[in-house]
Amino acid sequence: MAVSTDTVSKGSKQGRRHGQKKKTTSPSQLVPPSSTGIVKQFTNFTNHGVGLEKTLRLVQALTQAGAEVLIDTDERLAKRFAIARGQIALSRRYFRFFKFLDCFERVSTLFYPRQSEANEGDSVRTALELVKWTCFGIYLAMEDLTINGPDVHRHLLTEIHRQLDAMGVYSTSWSSWMLVEAHKFWFCALSLSLLGSLWMLLVADPKTSASKSSSWVKRIIIDGCDLLIPGSMVGWISVSPLVVAMNMVVSTVLAAQDIWVQAQA
User: Fold this and answer.
1) Which of 143, 144, 134 is nearest to 105 (CA)?
2) Domain span including residue 202
3) What is the pTM of this model?
4) Does residue 204 belong to any structural domain of this protein?
């Protein structure tokens, strides 16, 4: 019995060695596992609706920066970058076409909270959130009425926007005015979001954990960078389109981090 047991154990060891040899020569091992993981994570991110929108937003910011950098050296190529930026901006608007409904739903929830939420809520924070989501909803609804992307490159695309709206279906005399007014509501919404984050970080819960504090700081940076977009559009903040584009890159990368994690779930 002892001999047979040893024979079996030797055979099993040889089998394990043989299996290990097969694993080392497997074709699947030719591809580094880390590379495969990154590719899979990226596809998960781009297949996620919000992830794809953030990817397009990053490309839009880069094309805007490219147009501004090239305007003095190669105006023809700069115009191509600007046109590409306008097309990408238009494609992103389809992702948020009905987002105003979500905003007004949040407003309704804040108006009529559950009993437990009403008892535990911060009145200042609730008021800021209420006005913020109202402004966001108005901005998105007004933007939907124009379907004409924000014209940051006015010196490049003036003639194009005189002739037709971004979709090329129907042109109106009030679309440019409507878009500027919409961006005023966006500016107010981002300003209120900044105030709400500062309130939560410094006043409402100053002894919060480090992880929560970092999330509020990230939110402040994102909103602060995005604030330049509507601010420059309506003329309340005097910055160049290149500065707007670079801040847009920063805010997009920071916002995409949390979405990247969510897309892998």
Assistant:
1) 134
2) 50-263
3) 0.78
4) yes
- 22 domain residue, yes or no: no
- The whole-angstrom separation of Cα 170 and Cα 146 is 10
Q: Tokens at residue 20, please? A: 């290990």
Q: Which two tokens stand for residue 173?
A: 């005399």
**Alpha-carbon span 106 to 259, nearest angstrom:** 20
Tokens standing for residue 121: 């809520």
In sequence order, what are the residues at sequence separation of 6 or more whose Cβ sits closer than 8 angstroms to the Cβ of residue 145? Answer: 175, 178
Closest CA to 66 of 182, 152, 137, 8: 152
User: Looking at the 3D structure of the chain, how many domains does it have?
Assistant: 1
Chain Cα centroid distance, residue 75:
30
Q: What does the alpha-carbon distance between residue 39 and residue 96 come to, in Å, rounded to a whole number?
A: 27
Q: Which of 112-121, 158-167, 247-256 has the lowest mean pLDDT?
A: 158-167
For residue 30, is it within any domain? no
For residues 179 and 134, what is the distance between their CA atoms, to the nearest angstrom? Answer: 17
Is the CB of residue 56 less than 8 Å from the CB of residue 91? yes
Answer whether residue 25 is part of any domain: no
Per-residue pLDDT tens digits for 172-210? 788 888 889 999 999 999 999 999 999 988 886 666 667
And the tokens for 251?
Answer: 């805010």
CA atoms within 13 A on the CB side of 199: 14
Out of 166-170, 181-185, 245-249, least confident range:
166-170
From residue 221, give the alpha-carbon distance in Å to each of 41, 97, 142, 215.
25, 26, 26, 10
Task: Tell me the residue type at 184.
Answer: K
Four-point Cα dihedral 150, 92, 79, 68, nearest 10:
70
